[in-house]
Amino acid sequence: MKKALLILTFLTACLAFCCGQTAADTLTLKKERGDYQFYQGENRLPTSQFIMTLKSSEQAYKQFKSAQANYTLALILSYTGGFLIGYPIGTAISGGEPEWALAGIGLGLVAISLPINQGYITKTKSAINTYNRSLQSSAKRDKSELKLTLNGSGIGLTLRF
After folding, report:
1. What are the beta bridge partners of residue 39?
2. pTM of the predicted structure, to 2 decimals
3. Which of 52, 68, 139, 161 is surrounded by the fewest CB atoms within 10 Å?
4. Can you tell me the distance from the alpha carbon of 5 to that of 8, in angstroms, rounded to the nearest whole number?
């Protein structure tokens, strides 16, 4: 009887820690030192691993692909704008006649890239929320439960699905 009670206690303790979804499964986007980083629970994910994780949710993956298009466009505009700003400044430092119109165009490109980059961040957060909701809905679909029951004939485990 002691062995059966010990085994039953051990099984109950083990089952108490079983979960379909934990906080470690969910994805987050955190800003660190001016840059955004992807996390799954407490673990930092490189972008490639983040994309592989998102592939399990088709809708979240499509949202992130759209966000990446924004990111690429913002990157191209900001680097081009930075070059167009820096070229006249370099010309002025070296003693030449700078084309300040180029710097103005560059400043305009950088200004345009800022809201596009914000769109990337917004779409990425939306993709992460979609992924996390899909985890919660898949965890809710599993209606099976295991209970320790006590009735007139003794103690037992009841599995309902």
Report:
1. 28, 44
2. 0.67
3. 161
4. 5
